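Weekly modeling sync, notes
Attendees: S.R. (lead), two postdocs, one rotation student

Agenda item 3: backlog of single-chain predictions. S.R. asked that every request posted to the team notebook include the full sequence so nobody has to chase files. The rotation student volunteered to paste the first one in as an example of the format we agreed on. Action items at the bottom.

Example entry:
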Amino acid sequence: MNWIKTKNNKKINALEIPTGTIEELREDLRRINYRPIGFFGKQEFSNIRLYVILADDSQSDLYVSSVLFTPDVKSYKSLTQEFSAFHNFEREFFEDFGIEPENHPWLKPLRKNQDEYPFFKMEGEDVHEVAVGPIHAGVIEPGHFRFMCQGEKIYNLEIMLGYQHKGVEELMLNPNNRIAESICGDSVIAYNMAYSQIMETLSETNIPKRAELIRRIALEMERMAIHIGDLGAISGDMAYLMGASIFGTTRTLVINTLLEISGSRFGRGLIDVGGVNFDISKDMAKKIKTTIDDVLKTVKRTADIMLKKTSCISRMEQTGTVSKETAISLGAVGMAARASGINIDSRYDFNDEWYKKYWQKPEFKAVGDVWSRFMLRYKEILQSAEFISNFLDELENINDGLKVSINPLSQNSFAVSIVEGWRGEVVHCAITGANNELIRYKIKDPSFNNWYMLSMAVRNNGISDFPLCNKSFNLSYCGNDL
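Predicted structure, as returned to the notebook:
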């Protein structure tokens, strides 16, 4: 099977993407150890073209190829049996186009759920089911959790999503920044940045360096804010209420700083295709540094106290553990993957010049439990603060403007844009047609990869540990239910 080698945010000719067979793809996957980041279809007259994108993180390379299914082909031998990281990709492709991956081990609805969803069943006098959702208390979005338990112990958790049906990918064929930043409300900057970059790539538009830096400052503020809030949520679910209160309050200082920059606590309206809409003055940069320093002092002090309490440590250590081997087999990404010992971060892996200049990997021994996910967030808060400070210093010497006019989209082009959001890689893929129009827009949220991490994490844990495990991942419903 032939492949086109490309890079993050690089345009290639869509007509030059090779066409192979599923068996050739299978043979290549046996030979190369690259991971899937894209596996989606597009209607071509009466045929279906399957696009496959693999990532070689060690070399910052992406590989793109395709498989053409004619109308008489209704199935193929599933890849998941041999390469389990394809499990959700194949389910989604089947759901969208009806081409069945034969012998897929878990071929159930991914988003288009039926009235009679085929939940996993267990038999036995001591076995009982616990159902949670889809409607939850508070403002949490809909999702159904079905536990199979013996007494208090969880044997299996099945997660059924797909209650939103937003139709985002169709909307993105006539896109704008306001739609892009609304796809996943706690990842406004990451999603808007991925969309803007792919439009700039397809239109061969180079944005000002100052705008690049402001985008990354906002991205790290988003990461800091959510991570701090999640430290508070984890604290609350193990009844450490002082931590919940302090982290919750401290998060507000970060998002209020985004408010001062853009007029929105979540950074809405900050990024547009072609650059950014708001500047950071020298006075504001100084104020941001002071605020971030104050935030770090509070976070460090609260975390240090918390991590000396045996009651807190005992609730997190060896709770909700996902091994490195399991995480790899599930195709885990982002923070959840790193907390299980997988060294993957697209800020570094895909050669972002600003990040690589200041990159220092957070050091600690990740073992895949709640403690690891807590500690990784804590380490990444410190790392984000360093990035923000360094990027603000860079701004002092760069004054090339904020925004440029975008060129028309190139015809018959294909591009991938990857942004490391706080959960992990946000992947946008776009294809243009002969009339320079978008003909396919595909999105992958990191939660698409990581929901099964939560299912594995709670196995053989007490059901009372579920809220703590759930908060330690904090996965997205809306990012999955596109």
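Discussion: group reviewed the output briefly. The chain has a mean pLDDT of 95.
Action items: rotation student to repeat for the remaining queue; S.R. to check formatting next week.
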